[in-house]
Amino acid sequence: MDNESKPYGDLSLLSIADLKERWCYTKAGIHKLASGKDFPKPIAKVNKGRLSIFTKDDILAYEKDKPWLFNQSLKLSKQRGYFYRQNNQ
Q: 10 Å Cβ neighbour count for 60?
């Protein structure tokens, strides 16, 4: 099947549940990340606004230079650094 016969081309879509499988974060952790300024905006919300849909290209761009999304040790190091800075200001 070529792109002309696909109404959306090769558009790949991801939900928060997909990101949970992709990253070492819980759904709650991903929602916290999603509140950040640099997190991609969903292209759609379905199920009465409860399910956010993102393009894979937007997520790939967000993942760039964020290795802690995929590595639990790096994630914990980042969190420890954040908590240390918060408690020592």
A: 12
CB 29 within 8 A of CB 36: no
CA–CA dist 32, 16 (Å, integer): 11
How far CA 77 is from CA of 4, 39, 51, 71, in Å, comes to 46, 21, 30, 10
Reading the chain (89 residues) residue by residue, the pLDDT tens digits are 455 555 566 679 999 999 999 999 999 999 999 999 999 999 999 999 899 999 999 999 999 999 999 999 998 888 887 655 656 66
Rounded Cα–Cα distance for residues 1 and 30 (Å): 34
Which of 76, 80, 82 lies closest to 25, judged by CA?
76
pTM of the model: 0.76
